[in-house]
């Protein structure tokens, strides 16, 4: 107990959150990597499904934790890998990079290239105990994505909603998560654009301390994971010059190739005369 009479809560197994996410592509999810590592290892889910994986940051944090702890979790990343209004549209190279990285987790990880609706029949009812809803972020999308997948969840499933604190571009996660908070056990991190955590019907024992947090204890959980999340952003920022130089090298190689082709065509033209 502190001088102020406040019982500092202990965050169980915090060491799980202190490993560095191994794969850090660009993502708005960076600051929740340590929480994903921690959550996976304390929850020990049987089946994890992610709706919206893009470059794979959040997805591979879960895969990393599954591998590190030798869990028997089966993981599924579902995405069209084409992008959307909020994530932006992107090229085929993103899918290829995610597929290449997925090889190291191929024993337990499956990528499903489909819309969320089309992938639904591939899963049995009450079979998923960790779901991450991170597709397009309009209110109707988040509501539809969660409600259509809800029958697939076990009673003690945990659901993550990203971007609960974004108030621009008609993001509707905040509104939908606020509605869910009225009738379901929830916890929310405010950093990293906001991450809503919800228990489906009952809170699994491993997450009781998180869901039971009240008042100042909530702040302790929030600041612990916000600080750990900052380390991912700092590492990302630190590596910016190397990424920029890699991009400049690629642009230089591309323009060199273009010039070389142009010069070769000139010579070929001279030869024919
Ligand atoms: C916000 S990004 C996911 C970010 C990712 N979780 C991360 O860690 O950075 C959203 C992704 O959802 C995908 N998406 C959006 N709506 C979809 C739908 N209905 N079916 C399949 N994929 C969808 C987009 O292609 C995009 O890659």
Would you mind describing this structure in some detail?
- With 273 residues, the protein is an alpha/beta fold.
- It has helices at residues 33-43, 57-69, 92-102, 116-119, 139-149, 173-183, 208-212, 216-238, 240-272; strands at 47-51, 74-79, 83-84, 88-89, 109-113, 128-133, 153-162, 186-189, 195-199.
- The chain has one domain (20-238): Rossmann fold, CATH 3.40.50.150.
- 45% of the residues lie in helices and 16% in strands.
- A seven-stranded mixed beta sheet has the order 5-2-1-6-7-9-8, with helices on both faces. Strands 3-4 form a two-stranded antiparallel ribbon.
- Helix 1 (33-43) packs parallel to helix 2 (57-69).
- It is globular, with a radius of gyration of 22 Å.
- The relative contact order is 0.13.
- Bound molecules: S-adenosylmethionine.
- Residues 27, 29, 52-55, 57-58, 79-80, 82-84, 87, 115-116, 134-136 line the site of S-adenosylmethionine.
Residue windows where pLDDT falls under 50 for at least 5 positions: none
Which small-molecule ligands are present, each listed once? Answer: S-adenosylmethionine
Based on secondary structure, the structural category is alpha/beta
Series of secondary-structure elements, N-terminal to C-terminal: HEHEEEHEHEHEHEEHHH
**So how many helices?**
9
User: Which CATH architecture?
Assistant: 3-Layer(aba) Sandwich
Total discrete domains: 1
- Indicate the overall shape: globular
User: Based on DSSP secondary structure assignment, what is the total number of beta strands?
Assistant: 9
Oligomer: single chain
């Amino acid at each position: 107990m502190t001088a102020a009479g406040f019982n500092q809560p202990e965050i169980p197994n915090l060491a799980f959150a202190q490993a560095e996410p191994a794969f850090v592509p660009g993502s708005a999810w960076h600051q929740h990597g340590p929480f994903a590592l921690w959550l996976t290892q304390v929850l020990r889910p049987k089946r994890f499904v992610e709706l919206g994986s893009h470059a794979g940051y959040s997805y591979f944090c879960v895969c990393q934790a599954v591998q590190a702890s030798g869990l028997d979790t089966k993981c599924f990343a579902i995405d069209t890998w084409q992008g959307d209004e909020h994530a932006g549209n992107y090229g085929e190279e993103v899918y290829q990079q995610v597929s290449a990285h997925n090889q190291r987790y191929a024993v337990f990880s499956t990528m499903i290239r489909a819309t969320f609706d089309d992938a639904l029949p591939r899963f049995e009812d009450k079979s998923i105990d960790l779901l991450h809803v991170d597709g397009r972020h309009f209110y109707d999308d988040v509501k539809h994505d969660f409600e259509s997948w809800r029958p697939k969840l076990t009673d003690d499933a945990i659901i993550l909603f990203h971007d609960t604190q974004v108030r621009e571009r008609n993001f509707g996660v905040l509104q939908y998560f606020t509605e869910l908070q009225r009738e379901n056990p929830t916890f929310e991190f405010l950093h990293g654009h906001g991450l809503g955590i919800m228990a489906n019907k009952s809170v699994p024992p491993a997450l009781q301390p998180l869901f039971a947090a009240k008042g100042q204890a909530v702040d302790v959980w929030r600041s612990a994971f916000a600080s750990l999340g900052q380390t991912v952003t700092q590492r990302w920022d630190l590596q910016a010059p190397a990424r920029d130089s890699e991009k400049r090298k690629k642009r230089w190689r591309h323009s060199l190739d273009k010039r070389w082709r142009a010069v070769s065509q000139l010579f070929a033209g001279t030869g024919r005369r």
